[in-house]
Amino acid sequence: MKASVIANRDYTISRIDDRLYGAFLEHLGRAVYSGIHEPGHPTADKNGMRDDVAQLVRDLNIPCVRYPGGNFVSAYNWEDGIGPVDQRPTRLDLAWHTSESNKVGIHEFAAWCKTVNTEMMLAINLGSRGLDEARNFVEYVNGPVGSYWGDLRKKNGHAEPFGAKLWCLGNEMDGPWQIGQKTADEYGRVAYESAKALRAFDKSLELVVCGSSHSDMKTYPEWERIVLEHTYDSIDYVSLHMYFANRAKNTTNYLALNHKLDTYIATVQSTINMVRANKRSKRKVHISFDEWNVWYHSNEQDKEILGGNKGWPHAPRLLEDIYNFEDVLQVGCIINTFIRRSDVVKIACIAQLVNVIAPIMTEPGGPAWKQTTYYPYYFASRFGRGTALNLAVNCPGYDADLADNVPYLDAAAVLDDAGKIITFFLVNRNASENLEVSFDLQGFGKPTVIDHQTIKHDDLEARNTLAKPETVTPKKGNGAVIEDGKLKLSLAPLSYTMLRVGV
Fold first, then answer.
1. How many CB atoms lie within 10 A of CB 225?
2. d(Cα 188, Cα 227) in Å, to the nearest integer?
3. Are 7 and 439 a contacting pair, CB within 8 Å?
4. Which residues contact 480 (CB under 8 A, 6 or more apart)?
5. Residue numbers of the domain that contains 121
6. In a shared domain, residues 314 and 453
7. 233-264 residue pLDDT tens
8. pTM to 2 decimal places
9. Hey, which residues are catalytic here?
């Protein structure tokens, strides 16, 4: 089967915001406790943070990490996570039916972010709490010494402001599962007033307002319209979430799901533009897609804890999806969609980072290892920085349940900031045939292949586990050739490829 791709130096989509490759950590399951934090672990630092995990995170070069939730934040008292650790209260977390020790709070998270070279993206409780707690939290994190909250932060060991610039105004406030669920008007009002107060403190803050929890909500996309009507000129981003599942065990339909994602983004972009036009506003609001991932493998095993049948355990094994090779292809398609929509999607956070539906897994007292999905995320984060190219792709397609003529080739490309390297991210959705791809690189110099990596396994269910952590890993690719000034490459059936080309 043949496919062609045209990449023209003058045809671009957008400069990609580095935060497109962000991540998420919630006080949920073992994401924090025995994930990033495990005092007594052989690699633990003075703060009890696992350095083996930190090294895997550093390797990903993550620009920002959203924290502390997620559903958890909608009943969270941020004050519980400051002060002497041995004096912090244990609380019952209603979102995940577990107990929270608060041994990790804003100070510990900020210190960890510094060790892994990332920025904080902090979420505010607008569920059980409101405006006053929001401004107090922001002032505690960013306020000067000499003020009440700045002096309290200094007393707790950090005189300098943490300087967090990116703030989420609540989480999934449209969801009936959320503590403090609100109507669009109720949420729009409290989000606007909170944003106004935070702007009075610091006009340079970047604020994220809650959009729909997912595109199947009955209130979508009217929710976005109403919330933006209230908040448009006071915020910078609208938040979207989507998770991907293959419960029917149909690979063809599963690998077409990013078309639903693309439609979701396009619809919200249109809603943003409509509100902007109605308000005659010069302000540009973008999308923060701050929760996305594959999530379905662990649903059955989580029912006992989430149903309350296990009491209130601390840091239980929850949402611990063990990903397979098929999920590599899905994650590759999702990230490609974000690259192609980088003109409007400026922030995206894989949910989550460690243990909980995560690319990194840990064993308490033991090793950390990379799940199969670590690798497409790694390649995009490390090599997907620069300007997204507007590719012209010609390829046969197939009809799926939710879209017709889904191309067998899913492709995205990024030109680095120096203008000297194009990185292609390619997924062959065809289960039985190679894709013979010809690349026409227009306006570039003579191409040379710099790096070629593929991820391929004959078993779609192949997994990386504690016992066999390298079952699915990237391999050095071959067969990329330059003929008649064109780059040519054969993609194996159901495979992921990263190709870096010097131009």
1. 18
2. 5
3. yes
4. 449, 452, 487, 488, 489, 499
5. 17-383
6. no
7. 999 999 999 999 999 999 999 999 999 999 99
8. 0.97
9. 172, 291
